[in-house]
Amino acid sequence: MNKFLLGIALILTLNSCQNGPSQNEYNKLKTELEECSQENKELKNTPANRLLSAQKLETDGKLIQAENEYRELVGKSPKSEEGKVAQKFIDKVEKEREEKKIEEERKKRLGFKVLKENSSIKQGGCKLTFSNIKLENRWIFDRYGNQWRYIDAERGNKYLTFSLSITSDIKSPELPPIYVYQLIDGKLEYKTTAYYKFHRWEDYGSYLGNDADYSNDFSRTATIRFSPGAQLEMDSYNKYPTFLLVKKSNCVYRNEDKFGNPPVSYLNSNCNHDQSLTVDMATEDYFTIKIFNKTKI
Description:
Distance between the termini: 77 Å
Strand content: 25-35%
Largest sheet: 5 strands, antiparallel
Number of domains: 2
Structural class: alpha+beta
Number of strands: 14
Number of helices: 8
């Protein structure tokens, strides 16, 4: 019988006596019980038990509490195997913390210069590959045979156009939205949206919806080509650095309208853009595809 159980037995015995224990005896037993309780608690907190407790906190995503547990384990049992495991976690956390601090200092020092252009990205099961990015007076899309559809830019404006190839892992993906921002007064301010249009249809009949065109259907083909476009005011474009960004969100959905020409389109009506972006938001929530007027950053 350990001290804890013995103490309980003594109290029960004394309490059963007609006169009960004296105050001094009671205080002495109480002190012994508290000491036994603390000893019992420490016995449970062996290095192995402490390690299991810390690892559970880590698995549950309670990283601050886990770090505290690991540090306590290292403090009490630095040379044990469990202590060595705990030290590895602490070293990893401290390294990540230092790397984050360095990156934050770099962002603060360079601002939006930290953003890196990417011609190929992956988002929500889709791989997007951009090419032939340029400014044009005319936005051309929905080609078929030797024909195509187009929209001419308004006076003083031009269209930012590009070729976009999307490969999807699933048969009915929603696509990420594509936006244009400009760097104004230290923040990226939203300017316009680049809307999805198909690059080509098999023929005029498929463009009208009279015939199926499997090349523009992800349920039939893994890769589809698009010719998106966004209209820009040239005065603003010439004045400010301009950023073509893709939001890390899939919200552009496929819409079918048998009376439409073409009968299939991708719509942005379910998407919400951020009106302005900080460096952290642009880094964490967006992909940077192209930066124009870099020298003005």
